[in-house]
Amino acid sequence: MTSATVSAPVATPARRRRGRRRSLTAWLFLLPAAAFVLALTIAPFFQAILMSFQEWDGISMETPWVGLENYAAVMSDSEFWGSMRNVVTFGLAGFFLGNGIAISMALAVNAAPRARAFFRTAFYLPSVFSVVVVGLIFRWLLEPRVGVINTLLESLGLGALAHNWLGDPATAVPAVALTFVWYHWGFAFILFLAGLQDVPKELHEAASLDGALAWGRFRYVTWPHLAPVTSIVSLLTLVAALQIFGTVQVLTNGGPGSHTMVPTLRIYNEAFSSFRYGTAAAMSVLFGGALMALAIFQLWITSRRSGR
Amino acid sequence: MTPSTLRAPAPRRAPGTAEAPPRRPRGRAPGLTGLYILLVVAAVITLFPIFWLLSGSLMSLEELYSGQSIIPTTFAWENYAAGWIDGNLGLLLVNSLVYSISAVAGTLVCASLAGYALARLEFQGKSIVSAILLAVMIIPAPAMFIAQYKLLVTFGLTDSRAGYIAILIAGGIPMSTLIMRSFFASQPRALEEAGRIDGASSLRIFASIILPLARPGLAAVAVIQGLNVWNEYLMALVLFDTDALMPVQRGLMSFVSSETPQQTVLLAATTISVIPVLIFYLLAQKQIVQGLGSGAVK
Description:
Chain A is mainly α.
């Protein structure tokens, strides 16, 4: 930065040339990354918008223009809107239950004098598994006849509570939500724990000397320090819940009926099972747009807070 | 403001610490027990599903369906042999390894070059590039995957290793570039200036001075991206039809749904697919945890 600002006012031809050559070097450094992102992220992003006004069967080269037909189809697609409602439920479960567990456990581990590393390793462990593995594990746990959840209930004399958890519309959504919470809270936990370790110890000591109780210390010392972590964790939890796909596909494939359908799975099915890529693109524009609006809102909040 | 608040309690702490030892142990002992009960319960709930996977994978089919045992009475290792062979896991794991290594290497090259340019080089349009980078970060996969598929159809790259790797590299670049940029920005300038005075080119300075010093940053990006790529599922599902090309997540799902293996074999195959990532996690835990922090908060 210094050299450019210094050379600007003088601007002899030789210096300008050197500035241009430096610019060229920088662009060469950027080129590989820019090529990948332009071709495979930015172009498809706009292509998806274009596709949402077209029809495509997945094979032919023909993509006739259909105007707003795809959007009209999506508007009356109750399965898609139901799937939106489901992911909001998962998001709320992750937000309140998952983050609640995460922050409690982060406080607990942070306060524990021993075995911190063990608990940290254990709590983050589910997060390194793939969606397929998590789906297969929970499909087996929740299996209606010999799944361990039902077997345990029976051995505790609570056989009446044994249930086809994933097959009953009333329990399928909570079952998927709890799977998501089990899978995801460790990620929030790690970020909270890192945040807690940045809280200056002196502040806590000063507060306890001033007579603050544990709750007061948490409320007025720890919590304000965690605010940036809390906001980023909230966003990441919400975004992860809204985009949930593989876990659901493996656990229930959206069933029973479409009671546990999620938008990404709905989009996938519309394209790759029904071969209506245009409608699928319209769905992904609406759903992706909502996700991006959420992220922009979050960025705006964060920048406003740091601007103060 | 911070220095004063930090310094203020310091003189007062001396009498406080003298006072504390007799008070604290008495007040904390029952609390500490409660704390550990809470932590152990949470750990049991977290680890039980994984234990149950392992346990089931080692039972005979009769024992598994009897629902009577928690731990297998005799270890049925043949489940693992069957899972390995029927699930074609050797090939799937090699595929995943190839995809992970290529995608991570590609991402590292692109992200370190771009991150360095954004942190250290001067050029016109830098602020626009930074803004675009942030914008690209928030484009979610569900918004693009249909169009990405169509793009790869156009170039005949669906169901191919190259197409999948390219998608993975593009997906990893934005966050990795941000991490590398903040890493380079925190490094001292003295060495590269010495290189510049010696007349070395930017690329030369980058390759022989900057990169070797950037190893911690590169390692953080590599472990995070490595995990992401190993666990990637959506694009693998969309792009691959040929079993022999599939990464392990996709191949495992294909095995489960098309062959409907015995439950014990399925559990064994699932366990095998988890072992590499488990070893990786236990070895690279520190970098993963640190990388998560830097990736998420920046």
